[in-house]
Amino acid sequence: MAARDNRSDRGQDRAVYIISVAAELAGVHPQTLRIYERKGLLSPKRTSGNTRRYSERDIARLQVIQQLTQGLGINLAGVKMIMELETQLEELRRRAVELESELRRVRRGRPVALGPSSAAMEIVPLRTISAFPWLSGGTSR
Asked: In the chain, what are the helix, strand and coil shares in percent, each to the nearest 5?
């Protein structure tokens, strides 16, 4: 099923629509698409001749932008912030799933690699520390 999901993702990312078709599908004027691009709300692919090409994912994004601006009255700066926060939220959800999976493996007693930073750390036995800097004076024996 994951292979099918990847194919459908590729299909949604395939940039096939020229600006006039994309504008019509989204129900906006082509100039509006140019404005959205300048504001950083949209990043269509470009052909070798520098012509904009829009994907199904771009069209869906345009529809969300329209819903936020026209339906809810949010300005473009607010739309940009909302969309950035949604992207961050999706990344956090993905990371939470990864961490939950790691936690399940740890609870089952299987070793889990904690990442590159943990390999460089070493545990130092307490008796090798001669003084604690936070105690008075911080002097060693």
From this structure: 60, 5, 35
Beta-carbon contacts of 46 under 8 Å, excluding residues fewer than 6 positions away, are: 52, 53
Determine phi and psi for 73, rounding to 5 degrees.
Answer: 75, 25
7-34 tens-digit pLDDT = 555 666 787 889 999 999 988 999 999 9
Domains defined along the chain, listed by start: 7-107 (1.10.1660.10)
pTM of the model: 0.60
Cβ atoms of 44 and 58 within 8 Å: the answer is yes
Length of the chain: 141
Spatial distance between the Cα atoms of 68 and 88, rounded to a whole number of angstroms: 18
DSSP-assigned states of every residue in 65-93:
HHIIIIIT---HHHHHHHHHHHHHHHHHH
On the CB side of 114, CA atoms within 13 Å amount to: 6
Residue 137: partners with Cβ closer than 8 Å, 6 or more residues away:
none
**pLDDT beyond 80 at 95:** yes
The strand ranges marked E within the chain are: 45-46, 52-53
